[in-house]
Amino acid sequence: MESDTRVVLSLYRHGVTKENQDKVYIGWSDVSISQDGIDRLHETKQHRPDAERVVISDLKRCVESADILFPDQPKIQHRGLREINFGEWEGRKADELQKREDFAEWLNNPEVMQPENGESFKDFSARVMEAWKTIREWCVHDEVRDIAIVAHGGSIRKLLTELAPEEKDFWDWKPLHGEGLTLVWKDAESFGRGDRCTLLSAVPTTANENG
Q1: What is the distance between the alpha carbons of residues 7 and 103, in angstroms, rounded to a whole number?
Q2: For residue 207, what pLDDT is reported?
């Protein structure tokens, strides 16, 4: 039966941080989630699917979020799931960066331009997908069928561009802070091959998604 053979992956974006709320670039900056982030995660926790294995970015905001979502489970940290490194733009507000010509060029063509002393989109994408390949191989080897990843907006977008049943551009995906998306494969074979999933749905929440 499908219910006995399917593989389920839930992707959670970390809870919102004060820096997110202030529109500060924090790719590799190690900051904590805000009270708003904590509150939303507790709402999501009430509805999230179970997970046999929880894999997370090693940055504090993901560690804290995973501890709320999966308090009683061990977590595997993987640096490859980190957000893109914004280099010299880390810790700076978007309003401030608007004055920089290179920032304007990056906004217009982020897949070609890269932040000063930061990470290119190509390198970021390769890093995330290499991390995913490792995670998938772990899960296939150990016959894990219910997986959760707690990561960042960028890394989740990249995974969705490669794994979701509907092909969409990286920037068209809008993962919400503190909430999740669930991807389902019909069996371990299609999951192990690296096929796209067959079903995508939001983790149910009672919260207003625009709140």
Answers
A1: 40
A2: 44
pLDDT of residue 28: 98
Question: Which one, of 78, 77, 95, lies nearest residue 25 by Cα?
Answer: 95
Burial class (CB in 10 A: 0-12, 13-18, 19+), 45: middle
**Are 85 and 27 in contact, with CB atoms under 8 Å apart?**
yes
Are the beta carbons of 13 and 178 closer than 8 angstroms? yes
**CA gyration radius, the chain:** 17
Whole-number pLDDT of residue 149: 98
Contact 155, 128 (CB under 8 A): yes
- Contact between 56 and 78 under an 8 Å Cβ cutoff? The reply is yes
pLDDT at 99: 86
* List of the chain residues with pLDDT < 50: 1-3, 206-211
List the one residue out of 92, 97, 132, 129 whose CA is nearest residue 113. Answer: 97
Q: Tokens 């997986």 appear where?
A: 147
Is 6 strand, coil or helix?
Answer: coil
Q: How far is 94 from 40, CA to CA, in rounded Å? A: 24
Closest CA to 88 of 115, 113, 119, 111: 115
Q: Fill in the DSSP letter of residue 166.
A: S
Neighbours of 133 (CB within 10 A): 12
